[in-house]
TrEMBL record:
Signal peptide: none annotated. This is F-box domain-containing protein. It comes from the Eukaryota. Residues 8-54 form the F-box domain. The lineage of its organism: Eukaryota, Fungi, Dikarya, Basidiomycota, Agaricomycotina. It comes from Lentinula guzmanii.
């Protein structure tokens, strides 16, 4: 005891700048333990530089702060740090329990989720009746802005470009009976929010506008499964016809490029897109094989002849991976999509702290149903995590999944799984009690694409999921990009949802089978659930802090 006491006294006599320098080398929870050991060290908590150091440590370990991405963190560093740590302690439990379950939007007429605005209580929906996109303030249930986009959203991509600005690319059809996109819409949400964590969030100057709208050729056999945007203002849409094409549009100059590939619809069932900086990553999949390719920035219309507005060229795709691994006994295989993850870089000084996402890695998700002759049946969903480092000139990046993890059961094909903003989290709805001892013909592939830099999209499993034999569960997957390890968390779910009186809820937790969409805001620690009902859609949230 005397030795420990002497060591503490040795620390107490150190100059303040030396103590703060030592704290920079400690994990955040160890730093809290240190300042709790003596009254004098405890006084460090009143020093703003102490909280600044803890925030920098959290960001160094890629832990998103409990505030919007581009927030200017000049106030309330202590409250922000404590809320972030409280969230991490809760959601990283094996079975995190929500502190409250809220009904944000009661039963409305047919609505679909568009996107959360991470770190805020703003939420975007689309009304299938009138085609209006609406931005809601979930703190009071009021619609703050609306604009027409289309009645049927078939694919989307989101991008947080700067403070108070959020872009959403939508591939839409005019009616819910159409399954091929007829136009591409780039929706811009502008908003101002207070980051004062001592009072409820307040929003002002919320405005929705159309940044770009153009028609797509919906002539058979054309399909448009995915789209992606980047911060340089480039929009790319994948087109599946006889051959696979990429339609690239520079939103700043209006230049449009049609890139023709050698891939055909006979060898590709789906195409997903994501940006790695200015390069485009293309993932293709089918029941036979899957591939990963890169399209160099040199082939994309970042700069061109000002007299040329549209051009067409043949594109030689550079393979990043010959084949995405899959089991030779696969009964059902489908890509889930991918999302960025990785460390964050810092800009600014003590007075100004901002967060910038890194996009050097992503995850794909594959669905397996494997039958063993003697051991019965096993079905599971497997997440494969990939790290893509920029290759040197003239070199192909060798890529293999750096980590894989399994979820019990097959994912509900109707519910796209969701990746978090940083890519560290994925949210899934899986059937953990599925009887796959059936004819192989019962397994099929359907597509409901929802791919972007902030969310993964899921499709595939068994066509008849919502049966009496199914047992739905929600899983959260956490991936640590530094240790390349993952953990699976099964949140404790309520028996029923507040304000729900659906006749289909005959047994406890049967509402899970009615989930239409799921999204996870890792910043606020909220799991958003859009639940289908007889009276329309209902948006609920499981709040973990």
């Amino acid at each position: 005891m005397n030795t420990i006491s002497q060591q503490l006294k040795g620390l107490e006599v150190l100059p303040l700048d030396v103590l703060l320098e030592l704290i920079t080398f400690l994990p955040v929870f160890d730093a809290f333990s240190l300042v709790s050991t003596s009254q004098k060290l405890h006084t460090l908590r009143s020093n703003r530089s102490f909280w600044h150091i803890l925030i920098q440590t959290l960001r160094r370990f890629s832990v998103p702060l409990a505030c919007p991405l581009h927030a200017d963190l000049t106030q309330n560093l202590e409250i922000l740090t404590l809320r972030t740590l409280q969230r991490q302690q809760t959601i990283l439990l094996p079975s995190p329990s929500p502190v409250r379950v809220k009904n944000y939007l009661g039963y409305l007429r047919a609505i679909e989720s568009i996107s959360i605005i991470s770190g805020t209580h703003l939420y975007l929906t689309c009304d299938l009746k009138d085609g209006m996109a609406r931005c809601w303030d979930l703190t009071n249930g009021n619609a703050l802005a609306e604009i027409y986009v289309g009645r049927n959203i078939l694919a989307k991509s989101t991008l947080s470009t700067e403070k108070g600005k959020f872009l959403i690319c939508l591939l839409v059809a005019e009616t819910t009976r159409e399954f091929v996109a007829t136009s591409v819409v780039v929706l811009c949400l502008d908003y101002l929010t207070s980051i004062d964590n001592s009072v409820p969030d307040s929003y002002s100057n919320v405005h929705l506008s159309i940044l770009h709208r153009s028609a797509l050729d919906a002539t058979y056999p054309a399909m448009y499964p995915s789209c992606a945007m980047n911060e340089q203002g480039l929009l790319v849409i994948s087109k599946m016809a006889t051959f696979i094409h990429l339609i690239a549009i520079n939103l700043n100059t209006g230049v449009k490029a049609i890139l023709e590939t050698d891939l055909t619809e006979m060898e590709v069932d789906s195409v997903d897109l994501s940006f790695r900086g200015q390069d485009l990553i293309i993932t293709t999949s089918s029941t036979r094989s899957s591939g990963m390719y890169t399209c160099s920035r040199d082939n994309l219309p970042y700069s061109s002849d000002p007299n040329v507005t549209t051009y067409r060229q043949h594109l030689n795709l550079l393979p990043l991976s010959v084949n995405i691994p899959f089991s030779p006994t696969v009964l059902s295989y489908e890509r889930c999509g991918f999302y960025p993850s990785g460390s964050r870089t810092s800009n600014g000084s003590i007075g100004t702290i901002t967060e910038m996402p890194s996009k050097n890695s992503f995850a794909t998700t594959t669905h397996y149903a494997i039958t063993y002759e003697k051991q019965g049946a096993e079905h599971y969903t497997e997440c494969c995590f990939w790290h893509l480092d920029a290759p040197h000139a003239g070199e192909v990046t060798p890529t293999e999944p750096v980590h894989q993890c399994r979820l019990p059961g097959l994912q509900f094909f109707e519910v796209p799984c969701a990746g978090s903003e940083s890519g560290a989290w994925g949210a899934f709805v899986c059937d953990v009690d599925l009887d796959i001892d059936a004819n192989v013909d019962d397994f099929g592939h359907d597509f409901e694409v929802d791919v972007d830099v902030s969310s993964i999209a899921a499709t595939s499993a068994v066509r008849n999921m919502e049966t009496d034999d199914s047992k739905a569960e929600i899983f959260l997957v956490h991936y640590d990009v530094f240790t390349r390890t993952s953990s699976v968390h099964r949140p404790l779910l309520p028996e029923s949802l507040p304000g729900s009186c659906d006749w289909r809820e005959m047994s406890s937790r049967s509402w899970v089978n009615n989930i239409k969409s799921i999204e996870f805001d890792e910043r606020l620690g909220i799991l958003y659930l859009m639940v289908d009902g007889l009276e329309g859609g209902m948006l609920c949230g499981l709040e973990f802090i």
